[in-house]
Every structure is written in structure tokens, then in C-alpha cells.
Amino acid sequence: MTLLSLPEGLNLLDRRTRFARIALLAYIGASALDVLVAIGQFTGAIDSESMSLPMAGALTAIFLFYLLTFAATVVLVAMWVYRAHANLRAAGIDDLAFSPGWAVGWYFVPVATFVQPFRAMRELWSVSLGQYESFGDDADPQIKLWWGTWLAGNIIAYVGMRDTFTNTPAAIQVGLIVSMLSSLLLMASAWLLAQIMAEINAAQRDGIPMAQAFA
Question: Which SS3 state, helix, strand or coil, does residue 1 take?
Fold first, then answer.
């Protein structure tokens, strides 16, 4: 991969921030529609066994929209994470614990995914905002809340997915509640991530060149 100069990297991060935030907001919208469908199924307003053809088509469209926004969000957020970390290295900042590649890669490593991505984002946030804290210090509350909602949403989604294998009316109702709770947590996580991205982008744009000028 071609190395970019810091000005080029900052411009690229601007664009990636815009696209990733749009994807996150689209994902939130798709998840909200999914929650509404789950509410309809839970209350009986939507009957999966006797729904009309137009209703089935609408639910299929919502499902496909959710899959599309989810896939786009994963790709665009990964691209943003890589570029934001790469900008720190382009600025000549030393002693970073995470490379751009591993800042993304840790999300896909079993077990480590529960810890390492949080540490990488914490480092990105701290260094970008000029807060050179050690890992022994407490993380910013916004970063902790983002990670907490992301972890909780995914864990609850996993539990709910296991419940769907028990095809009894009670299990289905519990599964719908779990699905709604998971979606709400992941929506909150996506919203928080969008704010974190904007703050890191602004901090790098304003702070890194200034730090270099006075270095």
C-alpha cells in the first residue's frame, strides 16, 4: 500500500469520516426498522405465517436494506480506522502500540476482539486529542460507553440467536425481546462511534499539524 503524506492522509480521513458516518446513520435507520418489525411480531400485528404478499415483500426489503447497510458500515468503518491510525504514523508519532493494520485486524480475531479493538481506539483517541495517557489510566467515558454498548449488543445478539433454535412460542417471544434489546444497544454504539469519529477527525485536522509546527 502506498504511503501518503500527512496532508493527503488528513484529507482522506475527512472523506472517510463523512462516508463512514453516513453508513452508520443508515445502519441506525435500518436497525430502527428492524426493531419496529420485531415489535409488530411481538404484539401480533405481524403474523409470519399468514402475512400478505406485499407485507412479505416489505419485510424482505427491510432485511436486505439492513444487510446492505451493515456490510457497508463494516467496510467503511474499517477503512476509517486504518487511515486514522496511519495518520499518527505519518505525523512521526512514535511508541504506538497498534499498527493501522492490526487496529482493524483485532476485530476479527476470536477472544482478542473483546479487548484489543478497545485498546486500539483508546490509543487513537488519546494520541489524536493530545492526551498521551498510559494504559494504566482510565479511558475516556465516551470510549468506554461506545465499547460497552458494542460488546453488550453483540453478546445479547449471540444469546438471542441461540434461542431461535428452540421453536416454541415462548422462546420466539423471548428471542424477539432479546433481538430488540441487542438492536437498541448496537444503535447506541453506532451513534457514539459516529461522534467519536467526528471528534478524532477534527482533532487530527487541527491538532497534528499544530503539534508538528511547534515540535
Answer: coil
